[in-house]
Amino acid sequence: MKSLIQKFVETPGPSGYESIIRQVIRAEVEPLADQVTVDALGNLIVRKGTPSSNGMKIMLAAHMDEIGLIATHIDENGFVRFTTIGGVRAYNCPGGRVRFLNGTRGVIGIENLEGQSSPPLIDQMFIDVGAGARKDCSVRVGDVAVFERPYLDLGKRLVAKSMDDRIGVAVLIETLRQIDNSPHEIYFVFSVQEEVGVRGATTAAYGIDPQLGLAVDVTGTGDTPKGIKMEVGLGKGPAIKVRDAGMLADPRVVDWMVRTAEASKIPYQMEILERGGTDARAIQLTRLGVPAGCLSIPCRYVHSPSEMVDFDDVENAVRLLVGLLSQPVDLK
Amino acid sequence: MSSQTSPQEKQAPRVGAAQLKLLERLTNACAVSGDEGEVRQIVLDEIRPHVDEVKVDHLGNVLASKAGSTQDRLRVMLAAHMDEIGFMLTQNEDKEGGIFRFGVVGGVSPSHLAGQPVLIGKGHVPGVIGAKPVHLTTNDELRTPLSVDSLRIDVGPGNSSKVKVGDRATFATRFSRTGASLRAKALDDRLGVATLIELVKNAPANIDLLAAFTVQEEVGLRGAKVAAYALEPDVAIALDSTPANDLPTWDGSENTRYNTRLGEGPAIYVADAATLSDPRLIRFLVETALAAGISYQIRQPGGGGTDAGAMHKQRAGIPTVSISVPGRYLHTPLSITRLSDWKNTVALVYTALSQLTSDLFKVDR
Amino acid sequence: MTELLPFLKELISTSGLSGYESPVRDLIEAAWRPLADEVSTSRMGSLHALKVGRGAEPRPSLMLAAHMDAIGLIVTGVVGEFLRVTEIGGLDPRVLPGQVVTIHGRENLPGVIVQPPAHLLPPDNRSGPATLQNLLVDTGLSAGETKRLVRVGDLISFAQPPVEMAGELLAGHSLDNRASVAAITHCLEELKNRPILWDVWATATTQEEETFAGAYTSAFQLRPTLAIAIDVTFGSSPGTPSHESFALGSGPTLALGPNMHPGLHKAFVALADRLEIPYSVDILPRHSGTDAYALQVVAEGIPTMVVSIPLRYMHTAVEMVAMKDITRAGRLLAEFAASLDEKFMEKLSWDD
């Protein structure tokens, strides 16, 4: 599974421009799927299973897109001004390396901030692609880029950019690989544009009209020095989301997830995330409403170029997801 | 006159004296979000003879359709919003003095209120947003921004009965021309409305044109949401206007944040805060412009939003893009645009629509 | 016959935080069942009660929506015998220290929200109000018992008992929006033996305080011809601007603005005038901040209206309403429902 994770995190796919990562994912899932479609916004939708009397139509969502940058202006000296796609943090940028989708590589520089007490702003930064003048710059206004940082395997812990949410993508694919004899009709949705407002999941869920939805995404942790106050920590198991800033998980779904984890003796943690949301929010509000929840992979340094997850948590997430889908769902 | 006009013989829409007169009527009309009736009436009168069907929906959107005549036609939704930013009277604070509290509707720039004349209600009753004389103002006050809460609309002593709480009000600016420029209030988005009316009158034969003159764009893209749900188009295009912040910088350095520039043609959106345009449509518009020799610019990514933000997320998703006429000082009493930019916008949209086929969507996004 | 005051007191004393409305839903269902033809629950947990009209099919329908969810807290961490919390819905942390609460752990436990002394707070929060992140709930139990009985994700609701005040006023928490649920109940009582032509859906929606999930999904399911949100609005009290607040006892408010259909506003004003029910007009230049925000833009769009009950000290544990305003609102809604006929939609034009 680790090599799969590496392949995904090192492939670019900023929100709105997911075709390259979609191709890579498609190659993995096509042999395992009953049906593969791509919808109007670019969501990759994989169906496994057919409706049965004791099964449900279930939608799982892990987003393919990652945060990135987009060029807003090329100045006369060939420096590229930019703005963000999704929640890029300004303080993660200076010195960062980026790659545009057309292959151009660059480094993020910053204006002289002497005397400025407030944190640096994106407007004060620029990307240097090594061009000497505007006419020599291979980047144009509107071109998109992602951060570039190689995958790092620390043994138990894995580090890369775009763990959010390529780790969720990997979990879904591994689940798809392992699922056998599920009573359910399952839609594995590799969604687009989550980072800019869960837009892909909104339309995918409308198209599928599921009876139950689960997002698989990362969540933060409270286990770093003077970190946010949050009970979730790396290595304590996948997290069962109770709420985040975007939604209250359906209590029946939360209970179902907890009971299944306890019955299968899979470690888990209860998660409340005070900032941030996931595709589950979009699924929940679809049509007549969908009981929805989220299985979260605890992750340190979210939205930085070096996001860290615990590999045991990832494997336990797969175990739990497979366990959830292998039985009829009892939502009491 | 024969109705059997082949696509090649069909006249492309033009922006001439009649269209300018229409734009004048549209920009002078008062239609604040939620109260779009005056513009809605102009739209209905203009398009009724040219469409197959037209209706007004539960939010006040005007939805009209004109079927094409070729095989395999795309259903293309074009949206232009009828509403403008403005005010709503909230309380008659001083009945004898004619003084009213007001709230703002949409993103009104608070620094452009004091000292402006306004028009109130269906009767366009004149009023003013006053300000304390500078002679009576302390230095500290001069440094403090005037909050909407501290401002009042004044219809003059004895005139309270001419208007009522709940009436909407707009800036009182009248349309005018100067040199290559057009000056008016509500260029956002009467330019889009005028453009769409022209396209409806000259609908290309290779598409089914679904025209949505939307409401409440300025307060959350609300009309476009339900319109797109109802129309279920294959493609959606928002026709709006977008700021041109192409003014000089304070120190003469290069202006790197101009959004768009006047005179450089229609602005094609790659990304704003509400939508990441479909790259297939962006490419198609750029290639169309280059081939037809129509000037165009790419709007600087980031910020803002158009009806596209609501449309692209409806039902199972709709490939969408926005095209705007650049304008300076949008959301203030007087905006400025170049006639050439409007002409080129109409030309680009028309040319693109006439060449739009379902082949464009044979590749996945 | 539902006695309104005891019912309302029971409503606000029953837990029903956003996302976890089932206890209060059960209570409302018991009250509405004898007043409706069919009662059901939506996928999001909203309660739908249908009064079938007598008009010919296809019958248009009126949806009355009052959100039944209330604001509260949820446990984010257990620190010895203390609990860290975050909000469900919008809370002003300044009104929290000293508030009695119920912790819904493995059993219901009494607790109190406490503000630690300044020297135990982080340096940037020592002066000024403590943020919600820095408040704690003291369980009064030992650390071991707390750990056994409470965990992350448990809910906490306000526990202030209702206060009956002279002049038929009631004060307590969660009157936003249980007062409106009471108003709809009164409306259903008034309609019990009245012939109506349209179908009427009385709905108690979920999660208004968070995502409007109940309103969006119930309207999508029911596709009503008209939708009315019943909620609370700002009652005049010290510090509230006079143009945005309304005296308790002055009757319900009828909203006007882009979130409401102007034709519906006119219809309600005319009706209230005819019935001599006192009311105020509430100008809302932007959106209403109620379920109507969602209802208006569901599917192809729905004409919406907002009827509100003035309420002082919104989102505190001592919200205050006048019972008279609740019954007036209920009566107005009943009369409106009873007045709907085959011609109403034709009259609901956009421009006159």
Task: Tell me about this structure.
The complex is a heterotrimer of chains A (332), B (365) and C (352). Chain A has helices at 2-9, 19-29, 163-178, 199-208, 251-263, 279-284, 311-326, and strands spanning 35-38, 44-48, 57-63, 68-74, 80-85, 97-100, 105-110, 125-128, 144-147, 152-153, 157-160, 185-191, 212-219, 239-243, 269-272, 292-300, 307-310. Chain A has 332 residues and is α+β, with helices and mostly antiparallel strands. Chain A has 2 domains: 2-66 and 161-326, Zn peptidases (Aminopeptidase), CATH 3.40.630; 68-147, Peptidase M42, domain 2 (Elongation Factor Tu (Ef-tu), domain 3), CATH 2.40.30.40. Chain B is α+β, with helices and mostly antiparallel strands and 365 residues long. Chain B has 2 domains: 3-84 and 185-362, Aminopeptidase (3-Layer(aba) Sandwich), CATH 3.40.630.10; 86-171, Peptidase M42, domain 2 (Elongation Factor Tu (Ef-tu), domain 3, Beta Barrel). Chain B has 8 helices and 17 strands. Chain B has helices at 17-28, 37-47, 139-142, 187-201, 222-231, 279-292, 308-311, 339-355, and strands at residues 53-56, 62-66, 74-81, 86-94, 99-105, 116-120, 125-129, 153-154, 168-171, 176-178, 181-184, 207-214, 235-243, 267-268, 297-298, 320-327, 335-338. Chain B is globular. Chain B starts with 16 loop residues before the first helix and ends in a 10-residue tail after the last helix. In chain B, 52% of the residues are buried. In chain C, the strands form 3 sheets. Chain C has an 8-stranded mixed sheet, with helices on both faces. A 6-stranded antiparallel β-barrel of chain C has the order 4-5-8-7-6-9. A 3-stranded antiparallel sheet of chain C has the order 10-11-17. In chain C, helix 1 (4-12) packs antiparallel against helix 4 and helix 4 packs across helix 8 (323-339). The chains are: A alpha+beta (332), B alpha+beta (365), C alpha+beta (352). Chains A and B meet through strand 4, strand 5 and helix 4 of A and loops of B.
Approximately what portion of the residues of chain A adopt beta-strand conformation? 25-35%
In DSSP terms (H or I, runs of 4 or more residues), the helix count of chain A works out at 7
Q: What is the name of the CATH topology of the largest domain in chain B?
A: Aminopeptidase
Gyration radius from CA atoms of chain A, angstroms: 20 Å
